[in-house]
Amino acid sequence: MTYSMIDGIVNKHDQRSVSIFAKSIYRELRTSGFSESDVMALAGELLALLTTDVRNQGADRQAE
How far apart are the C-alpha atoms of 6 and 15, rounded to whole Å? Predict the structure, then answer.
């Protein structure tokens, strides 16, 4: 997903889309039988992946 940026601020439409998408994923997981703990574990894994990507991008920028 890409974000349109205006002066470094994410467009409000995109923020709303992300929120709607997150709610849809959450509802789908819960109705599919995933527990709150399962959803929290998924969120943690996603954050870990994002953290790794951000760190790698920082290392790539420093190498330039």
Answer: 13
Task: Look up residue 2 and give its amino acid.
Answer: T
Cβ–Cβ < 8 Å for 11, 4: yes
**What would the two tokens of residue 18 be?**
């992300």
DSSP 3-64: --EETTEE-HHHHHHHHHHHHHHHHHHHHTT--HHHHHHHHHHHHHHHHHHHHHHHHHHHH-
Element counts in the chain: helices (H) and strands (E)? 2, 2
pLDDT digits (tens, 9 = 90+) for 6-50: 555 556 668 888 899 999 999 999 999 999 999 999 999 999 999
